[in-house]
Prior knowledge:
By secondary structure, this protein is an alpha/beta fold. The chain folds into two domains: 3-153 and 191-214, Rossmann fold; 156-187 and 219-250 and 264-273. The chain is built from ten helices and 14 strands. Strand 1 (3-7), helix 1 and strand 2 (24-27) form a beta-alpha-beta unit. The chain starts with a strand and ends with a helix.
Amino acid sequence: MKVCAITGSTGILGKKIKKNLSYKFYEFKGDITCFKDVYKWIQSKNFDLLIHLAAIVPTKEVIKDYQHAYNVNVLGTKNIINSLKKKKEKPKWVFFASSSHVYQVKTKKILLDESSKVRPYSTYGLTKKLAEIQIKKLKNFDIKFCIGRIFSFTDKAQKIPFIIPSIIQKIKNSKKDKVIFKNLDHYRDFISTNDICKIIDRLYCTKSEGIFNIGSGQAINLKTIANVFAKKYKKKNIFKNNKKKTYLICDTRKIKKKKIFLKKFKNKIDYFYN
């Protein structure tokens, strides 16, 4: 059984990876911003691959304390790279969970591929862009690496301020039959954590290198999500004060070449909450 070192194992995606993938996990439980903690963990055991998930997310949490987010997302990644540099028995492969936020949102339905211009549209995206720069240093140590730019992921364990839980809570907590939403006419690409696990596993098995966009390739309007759950809770939505529509949609051609087949859902609620 392959030994997988993993950071961020207590997060939503980390927990799902431990549940779904057949690896022996070596979890990081220290302070990612402390070089001594990271170095000791890296040096204490040999492993076949490393999955680096630890990060401050979502965007609202980054905005609250950018310095802390920078320390975790960027300096934490730097600590891993510098620790791997000094390791004698280096892992064969490293996966870094980046984000679609490194791209600029579009005002038209334009699919974003791996060569699309990197221009972060959020402070969270900026930290991921800077972390990617650190990850790319692995090529100097002859360690294969893969950067997965993950689009909007969904999971039942998500809580506010993630977008879907926020929409659901607003609908459920409304004492009126009509729920007013502002500025929700935007298109995003949603993918379940189960599918992300499949993709990461496939990327490792094929020893893939470089940047891969990880998404479904489907443009989902946020108003559609609100209407799905309004119907479930027998409410009616009213959409007001919408700004210009924006799109952040994945071009999946590169990832499809890895022969990864994503699950098809029976209904929309299953799609958003699988």
